[in-house]
Queue: 3 jobs
Job 1
Amino acid sequence: MLTYYRDRIDTLTARIMNLAPRLERAHQTVRRLETELSATPVLHDDPTGPTKAARAARLSAARSMAETLIERDRQLRVAVAVLQVELDSSAA
């Protein structure tokens, strides 16, 4: 049984490590889109209105993806912590 816990912890830890670069890219994308959106002027007759709306939609999607990845990271870390507690209590 201890081997199962160790294997699961190793697998989940690897997933956390693989998730880290994706999470960083998501944060970078959000920051870039926020900068682009704030740099776009807002004029009623300006043809950039639709462009700004499209950028806002992309920013919303990027934020949603970042939040999803953050939640996934949190879930994996909780799972590792629970397995670690089980492993520690089984070893005692």
Job 2
Amino acid sequence: MAGKDHLTVYYSDPVKKIPIETREAFSKMINEGVKPSKALVTIIKKFKLGSLDISNTLALIEHAYPGIYLMGEGLQSRIVDSNYPNNTEGLTHEEFDEAIDRLKDVYDGW
């Protein structure tokens, strides 16, 4: 493959401003055993966000699950491509929760 360029694209848009309390509220729900998808939907409703910017979705997940590798299983790409959780056609809540559980298991196993 000499002479071929390889391009890796990372989602790097800046995090849009949302209330700082969302991080703590999201992490608290996760620690209480609430499924990640339910916690995201609750954050949107509780803080009247209307929708959740992808950068915020990723930031909330990384805050609640420090060390989780979102690129694992292509989860970050699936979140970005589908505009999850605002659109659940490309990534359902169940698929999202299952992927988080699998990624947590990998991280916990290190």
Job 3
Amino acid sequence: MYFSGSYQNIIITHHQQELHCSIEQDQELKRLICHFSCKDQDLYALVAAFDQQPEFLIKRIISFAKAYIRIHNVEKLELDLQHCLNNPANNQIII
């Protein structure tokens, strides 16, 4: 698995809630960084992982999503996030 670009937006929808994940690749720090927002408001939260280890970023995104929008189907979310990171055209996840 690899991150397929320098910037990507993913929307996670659970019931009526949407969590926006803006993922960017910091070349200088060699990290993937994900900022979160909801309804166009910055949540002032981020998670990060080394750019060679996107699976750690996925685990951290899941951890935040579980707490913020109370997602219980972690396995499906993990597979969907992997798919989105590998296929930038697919940026919508419905749980």
